[in-house]
């Protein structure tokens, strides 16, 4: 349940208890220099060419470890050969839309109590998540749990690329609006209880960290088969409601994403497109959809 709208870490208040998820420490100047100089390629990367011009498609992970934001040789080349960065969502667009939305769906009392208990376990202040949709509450708790293995949303590739683009004055284009992505995140009313119950059960049983580590490892190696098989092993698609929601959240967004990437490339600039790696596999894989739209798609990492 890791998705681009999981950027609520700005709300987090570090707890003093020893069992709180650890707050990530920034690297020293020496560490940062070493990581920047020796970063390997991580994550799948394609060159996409149409109309005599190449853009690049990068499958990202929306969280990472402290040394992961540093680009490897292939991603550095993609950056040098492009002029525009395209991402799923600009995080700056999210909070105003959340603030203007109607109140979040009310969970049944037993689920609400379980959610609050899990938030307390994660050392969040009481009620801090209550104003957000239930799926964003779950996503926030999942990311906090991931901190126990050294992962953090602040180390995700999307965030690193956006920070670099803004530091250099490079244009950043959002492929989706915050309203569109929030709509995709929300389960149907008759699915909500099932999805929240399943996710809370995973968190309470300590079953979240293993799939997250496996996902991160598959992404870092560019293992497209493991990424394509994610629904089979994530423990997040075990019921009809979970499978239907995951399909809407991932596959059903790929067609519109492919259309917007095509339109952006057609404007005449070379674009580095950074989209979650789970959109790159399965029957509606973005590389496949772009090939159907006339792009020559060449895998760069891992090389074919």
TrEMBL record:
Keywords: Signal. InterPro entries: TraB/PrgY/GumN_fam, YbaP-like. The keyword Hydrolase does not apply. Residues 1-18 form the signal peptide. It comes from the Bacteria. PANTHER family: CYTOPLASMIC PROTEIN, CYTOPLASMIC PROTEIN-RELATED. This is TraB/GumN family protein.
